[in-house]
């Protein structure tokens, strides 16, 4: 699964990366701070394409903010979102929670990289100690994770024209991890390469077989992984230090003697 990632790219850089017109950046995107410990239910940046209301045969690409944890349009309330942070590639075209979004509401979720936890042979309180790893593009580029988004109507807000009446949410698509990354975790987020951005985002395209063909695991060597501090295991911790590699001696700052810290909290998964 993908349960945490880092997102610190400036919106102006994303505008260039994803070929978005400067006027199509939602103000709330500008307000989002750098987040090196993105967790489910957080607001995140997404790239979407929407039909032009005045010219339905044309689309507009936008940079917007959505809440991580997909809430289907038919949901009675938003609580289901915390259970739908990931959608499996193998079943996304058939699952009721994802089927409609997969057909016409696909998005890209820009990231610096994502975290996975590896179960070591060490034990603490009878349970395996989990070592977090940060996985990112080896070339330092932007990671474009394949996602879906939904728009849920909050009927407690009477004014349907109000932004508060509509909740935008998303989920990250996952697949079986490639051999080199499968040693850390058996699942990984699906990535969309630059030459497939247009086809993946196009809301006028809905053939499930063609869409699934766009999604392939990262090529060998495309990503690199390294151990990071256990401090990332708590959502209370944030900052660029979370993506720093552990020092050569392997000492984790979170393991140093001292009073208990937020790093000792239990991870979300």
Automatic annotation (TrEMBL):
Sections of the chain in a coiled coil: none
Flavoprotein as UniProt keyword: no
Annotated region described as Disordered, given as residue ranges: 236-269
SUPFAM superfamilies reported for this sequence: BB1717-like
Record-linked Pfam families: SRAP
Enzyme class, broadest EC rank: hydrolase
UniProt keyword DNA-binding, yes or no: yes
EC number: 3.4.-.-
Family: Belongs to the SOS response-associated peptidase family.
Protein name: Abasic site processing protein
